[in-house]
Every structure is written in C-alpha cells, then in structure tokens.
Design goal:
single chain, 518 residues, mainly alpha
Length: 518
C-alpha cells in the first residue's frame, strides 16, 4: 500500500485552510487538529502570518529596525526537498526575492480543491528541492508550513518523507511525525521514538497511550490516576483513557463523545476501544487510516477514492482495491466497483466489442467520483491501441488526453467535430485554425493567442518572485472554474510566462474535459 513520493507524482505524469497562530505562540499551523497529540514548550519562535505592519515604537525612535539574518554554515532546513529540479521542472530559485512570511501566507491560504494538474503542481511546489527564501535564517519555518499543508491535503507519506529528510529533532517536527505515525499505523515506532527522546514533551494522553502500547499497563494506569487527580486531563479524556486501559470496568457505560477537533491520537484510542470514528467528515488525512487492511473493504475503497481524488496516493492503490473481490451489493461505490471490474476484464481480454460496451459505463462511474484522471493514468495508453468506434472512441480520446500520453493520443486521432479539434490543438500545443467550441474554450485560447497574466502575477514575475506568481496563477484559474473566465485566461497566461507550458496545457485540457464548473 505504501509508495514513494516521487512515484506518486510521476505515476500521474504531473511533475514539471485557514491560517491561525497556535495557542502556544509558536509557528503557524495550517490545520487545527494538529499539535494536540504532543505538546510544544512555550516560547518557541517561528513565523506568524498576520498584518504586515512595522513595529510600534516610541517617539524617540531608539529601537533599531529588525535585522534579517541567514545562517552561513550547515544546510538550511527550508531548502530541504524530495524532488530535484531536474524532475520537478521548477527553478532552484523558485522563491527568488520573496520573504518567508509572504511565501508562507500564500501556501497556507491556498485552497484544497484545485483541478488535478494544478493540485499536483502545488504538491510538487511543497516537495521541491529549491533554495530557501533569503530571510529564512535557517529556522525551518517554511519547512514546517509545507509539512502542515501536506498533512492538510492528506499527503501523509509525502509529509513523513519530508520530515525524515529534515529530521524530527525538534518538538515541532516530532509532533508532526507522531501524528503521521498514528494515522499510518506506525504508532509503535512513534512511541519508541518518544520514549527515547523524553525532551520532546509528550502530553499526558500521549504518554499513557505509549506506555500501554509498550505493555506497561500498571504505569499507564498510575499515570492516568495521578494526572486526573491533578486536573491534567479532562473528565472525558480520563473516561476514554480508562476504557482504553481496562475496558471491562466500563462495559455497558456510554462511550464519551468525540472531542472537537478529533486528533489522530483520539482516533486511534476510539479504534482501540472498539468504537472507531468514521473518517468521512474528518480532515482528509484521517482517510489514510482506513486504507489499512484492518478496515472493511467498503471503507478502504471510499478512503482510497478520497485520497486518489486528492492526488496523494498512486492510482494503482485504487486499482488494487476495486479489483480485490466481487461487489457485495449494488448502488453507490459498488456500482463503481462493478463497472470498473467489467471494463478491466474487457480490456484484459482484448475483445474490442466488450471494451466498446464497458468503457462508456466505467467512464460515467469515474466521472461521478471525479476520478477521471487516475483512470486515464491507468488505462490511457492501452486504449490507444484499440480500433474503437462511436461513443467508445470519443471516450477513449478524452481518456488519452487526460493521460501522460496526451500528445500521442492527439496525434493518433482524427477529429470528428470542432470540440475534438480544439482538444487536439491544446494537447499538441498548436491552436492554429482551431475554433474554440464555447466561452471557456475562448478564454483558454486567449491565453495562447493574446496572453495576459493578471497584474498581480505579472508584478510578482517582474519582482523575481516566481513561486508566488505560480500560486497566484493557480488561484486565478480556480476563480475561473467558479465562473470568472477572465481568471482562466490570466492564470494560464501566468503559468506559461513562468515557464510551465506543459502544466498549462494539462490544465486547459482538464478544464475542457472534466467540466469542473461552478
């Protein structure tokens, strides 16, 4: 079930939340459920995104202005990445003249509902091996924001790999590593690390949980009773932990209500006492806990669909789950499983008539779940080899255009109408003589014929702040999806101006084919 970070991005062919200050006054966190499992000592410094104003000083003006410092020895943690520039397609100086606080604000504020190509671009930015902003000072503030955003997007394997690359040697990094371990089923390893590094300051519930996991039930119970007497745990926490340590004592008693927000530690304890909390409705990262074989098949499939849709696990995961066994019922997820299995069997047989019959139904089910791009990654190349006709041929073209082999699919197809002609022009990068079929097509074509980035994106490009210009472009296209077609033109224009023409082409094809509008 595990896969490498780069393989997820390459498998998709696409390499190339509310902000708030933590209660401790520490670094910015992009997600409210994080940082509850393990405590952080107060007084730790970090970047806080807020109003960009100069400090208030007295009339004497005796205080000096803040001085930017940069460590001259040792690697800068903000430069740690997993994807080299040769693979990501991003420049080494991505952030250029950008300041850490501004880059962090742009990353944290970025929405989580992009088109697949733009989501993979954003994940690549978070994981890229690029130079740190000039004012980073070697503190790792931007690294922490990147990890938090990965966690918020459900990219747990990627976040864990980035933490490992940087080293979980601070309370801030350890608590993120601990939460990831809880959601990926590696809690024993996390507890061992906690026991070997007591200075990382676990909370009482985390300490009790790890004592019990290690088999030291007596010490865990003593710690709970002492902490409860001292008021260090709430009544609900004490009841839940007591049930975890000795379920027989609480048989017949109602389970304490789930806290808000639910933390990874809460989720694991509820699971351990036989009252697992459904991950649907929880932050996306919790879905990772349900692709574990211990979950039921339906729960595994639904969790994998959410993560596959988010682009954070490889399409092969959902392929394996969809084909694991025969559907148990009908309707909803089972209809998708049945349609997928029928198509997969037809394609394996090589029978063109069977494929022609099964493909439109499978495609319709993938559209319902917004899994068209993963489906295209899995089957786009194979469908190119079949002499399909009619509806199946039209579907196969769109599958091919959404796959990493889009240009080859376009070259092999003779368009049957203006829409197909325009799609082929986008895939090949040549719109000469291609007529846009609708207003969205005209907005896309304008980015190629009369490119015009937004004033904000152009100013960022002119100021050598390419990374922020790319983020601005993604946001503009997001507005376009909601109906502001000028945002489509401006966003695609900015991506092309930033040197990401391939991403712009994939995005334009997704805009036309996926119909994610409004």
């Amino acid at each position: 079930m595990r896969t490498s970070v780069v393989s997820v991005l390459l498998g998709l062919g696409l390499c190339g939340s509310a902000a708030g200050q933590e209660a401790t006054g520490g670094p910015l966190s992009a997600i409210d459920w994080l940082s509850q499992s393990v405590a952080t000592p107060t007084g730790s410094g970090g970047v806080v995104v807020g109003i960009d104003e100069p400090p208030v000083v007295d009339q004497g003006g005796a205080l000096p202005l803040p001085v930017t410092t940069t460590a001259l020895d040792g690697p800068n943690p903000d430069a740690v990445g997993l994807i080299p520039t040769t693979v990501s397609g991003l420049p080494r100086d991505l952030w250029g003249a950008g300041l850490t606080v501004e880059v962090a604000a742009a990353l944290v504020a970025h929405p989580d509902d992009d088109l697949p190509a733009l989501r993979q671009l954003f994940l690549t930015i978070l994981l890229a091996e690029v130079a740190a902003p000039s004012d980073s000072g070697g503190r790792g503030d931007l690294l922490q924001v990147r990890i938090d955003k990965l966690l918020a997007l459900g990219a747990l394997e990627q976040a864990a790999a980035l933490i490992d690359a940087a080293g979980a040697t601070t309370p801030e990094m350890f608590r993120r590593s601990f939460d990831v371990a809880l959601l990926t089923g590696a809690e024993d390893r996390a507890c061992e690390a906690m026991q070997n590094a007591p200075h990382l300051a676990p909370t009482v519930p985390a300490r009790i949980f790890c004592l019990a996991r290690s088999g030291d039930w007596d010490t865990a119970a003593l710690t709970l009773h002492t902490s409860e007497a001292l008021g260090q745990v709430s009544a609900d926490q004490a009841a839940l932990l007591g049930r975890f340590l000795d379920p027989d004592l609480f048989e017949g008693d109602p389970v304490p209500p789930a806290p808000q927000p639910v933390t990874p530690l809460d989720w694991r304890i509820y699971e351990a006492v036989g009252e697992p909390l459904p991950t649907e409705g929880l932050p996306l990262a919790f879905s990772y806990a349900e692709i574990d074989p211990r979950a039921g098949w339906k729960a595994q499939i639904e969790a994998a669909e959410r993560l596959t849709r988010a682009g954070t696990i490889a399409p092969n995961v959902i392929l394996g789950l969809y084909t694991e066994r025969q559907p148990a019922a009908s309707g909803g997820v089972w209809d998708r499983v049945a349609a997928f299995q029928d198509f997969d069997a037809a394609l394996t047989s090589g029978d063109v008539a069977r494929v022609s019959q099964a493909l439109p139904q499978a495609w319709a089910r993938m559209q319902e779940a917004e899994l068209e791009v993963p489906f295209a990654v899995l089957f786009g190349a194979a469908l190119m080899q079949l002499p399909l006709e009619g509806e199946a041929k039209a579907v196969a073209l769109r599958v091919g255009l959404l796959s990493p082999q889009a240009a080859r699919a376009a070259e092999r197809h003779t368009p049957t109408d203006a829409t197909e002609g325009f799609l082929i022009g986008l895939a090949t990068g040549n719109l000469d003589g291609r007529v846009p079929p609708d207003s969205l097509g005209r907005a896309i074509a304008a980015a190629y014929r009369t490119p015009a980035p937004s004033a904000e994106a152009q100013a960022l490009l002119d100021a050598n702040r390419r990374g922020e210009a790319i983020l601005s472009a993604i946001d503009s296209i997001g507005r376009g999806v909601q109906g502001d077609l000028r945002g489509v033109t401006e966003g695609l224009s900015a991506l092309r101006a930033a040197g990401l023409d391939g991403v712009a082409r994939r995005t334009a094809l997704e805009l036309m084919i996926l119909e994610r509008r409004g």
